[in-house]
Amino acid sequence: MKVAIIGGKLQGLEAAYLAGKADWDVTMIDRVPDVPAGGLCQQFLLADITTQTDLKRLLQPFDMVVPALENQDALKCLHNYAEKERAGIVFDFDAYAITSSKIESDKLLSHIQIPTPAPYPHDGFPVIVKPSIGSGSNGVCVVHDSKQLESHLAAATDEQVIQTFIHGPSYSLEIIGCPGNYCPLQVTELEVDPVFDCKRVIAPSGLSKKLTADFENIAIKTANALKLNGLMDVEVILDHDVLRVLEIDARLPSQTPITVLTSTGINMLQLLAAQHFLPSYKTTGIPIAQRGVIYEHIRVDGSTLTVTGEHAMASAGTLHLEEDFFGADEAITSRSNKQTDWVATLINSAETRIEAWEKREAVIAEIIRFFNLDTYRDCTPTHHGVASNLYC
Known about the structure:
Elements: E1 2-6, H1 10-21, E2 25-30, E3 43-46, H2 55-59, E4 64-67, H3 72-85, H4 93-99, H5 102-111, E5 127-131, E6 141-143, H6 146-155, E7 160-164, E8 170-178, E9 181-192, E10 198-203, H7 209-226, E11 230-239, E12 242-249, H8 256-264, H9 268-277, E13 292-301, E14 304-307, H10 311-314, E15 320-325, E16 328-333, E17 342-350, H11 353-370, E18 375-381, E19 387-389
Parallel strand pairs: 1-2, 1-4, 2-3, 14-18
Antiparallel strand pairs: 5-6, 5-7, 8-9, 8-11, 9-10, 10-13, 11-12, 13-14, 13-17, 15-16, 16-17, 18-19
């Protein structure tokens, strides 16, 4: 299959990895050279689809087009093209229009009575403040009093969402399908860095059977309300024994699909293709046997190894895939023989989650030994919103 991926940043990196594992012929299209995903594709086209006078000529050679970006102008162009040409664009533009706004998402979740963190000023401080538009950790911060909140809102240029800060583990779940045929996939556990950017994904999640079933019901109920036709991920935080939804996104996410593929063998991009080209296709659930996986990002800088959020990967230039990377199954990395400062996404798997973590520890130790590093950092926010350094 000939596939075009539009956008070469973090979502594009995910799409390129999944497409490569499916043995597809992949072309990356981006308006910027040296994007992270450029090194994981067979071809790269430098093009800005928002300025293309003949988008049909650009995209018609491909069997499938995967939008892997959140640029509104680009998505509008692709939407218009899809409506005119009935092209193989695997994207639910209507569902994305709702989920790309946290304000609209929260309205929908409230309407269908899905638990979310309480809106300010329900429980006072501290609170989490985040922009309504955009995914990931950009612009997210913890605020501790009304004066700090007023200052933050005065400086903000976009609409903000303000919710009670909850201290608890976070989880993600993808759901795929169309009305009447939705299939939740694998729950993964998320860990974040001091600025709430995801640094590590772990599978299996360790969530109880009851809470896993609750999570799947939340995802199905939300997909039905959206009339989802495609893929969506749901992120929650565990508040005592209640799963509260932090974010929903109707598009291919980053990080978790690679983890799910490594743990279960399920390739979400292949599922999307099957759903798009075979309307009667019925998605099946995840296999009972799930390998343990530790997926995380690191930065080596001078004499220091830091476990970091995925933002480090977005700004590292063109990345490439390596197997058996210092003992890891694979790594997506910027490292070359001439570099002393580099980043990598490490993918470690084993029969169980505990064994995968032990393997990960051995990989980190080998990198530290090989490069003669003297500092290791793995920092996380505390419930006070202050970075806690776990391993320095």
